[in-house]
Amino acid sequence: MPAANALLEMDAATCLCSDGDPTSAVDKAVDVWEKLPPAYRGGLIRTRAEAVRQVLPGAAHDRLEEALATP
Predict the structure, then answer these.
(1) Would you say 40 and 31 are in contact if contact means Cβ atoms under 8 Å apart?
(2) Three-state SS across 4-70?
(3) What CA–CA distance (Å, rounded) separates 64 from 2?
(4) Do residues 26 and 67 make contact, with C-beta atoms less than 8 angstroms apart?
(5) pLDDT for the residue 20
(6) Where are the domains of the chain?
(7) Which of 36, 52, 55, 59 suits a disulfide with 40, CB 3.0-4.6 Å?
(8) Are 61 and 53 in contact (CB under 8 A)?
């Protein structure tokens, strides 16, 4: 997945959370994260993923936090 697409998908995850769908938001964010090569998991993509994580509630927050802990 190209980095630009990953940024857009992370933004879409933020929108899903804002729309009241944290389950779909975390599914999208984790999917994007797992498809990225480790070398692409820094900078803006990590910043966007962390922003999504911060607004997710409960188990969704924990699930994304676990995904982000992978190198």
Answers:
(1) no
(2) HHHHHHHHHHHHHHHCCCHHHHHHHHHHHHHHCCHHHCCHHHHHHHHHHHHHCCHHHHHHHHHHHCC
(3) 20
(4) no
(5) 95
(6) 3-68
(7) 36
(8) yes
Packed helices 22-35 and 3-18: angle between N→C axes, nearest 10 degrees: 170
- Whether the pLDDT of residue 1 is over 80: the answer is no
Q: Which residues are CB-contacts of 48 (< 8 A; sequence separation ≥ 6)?
A: 7, 10, 11, 14
CA distance 40 to 20: 29
pTM of this structure: 0.91
Determine the Cα angle at 10 with ends 7 and 11, to 5°.
Answer: 85
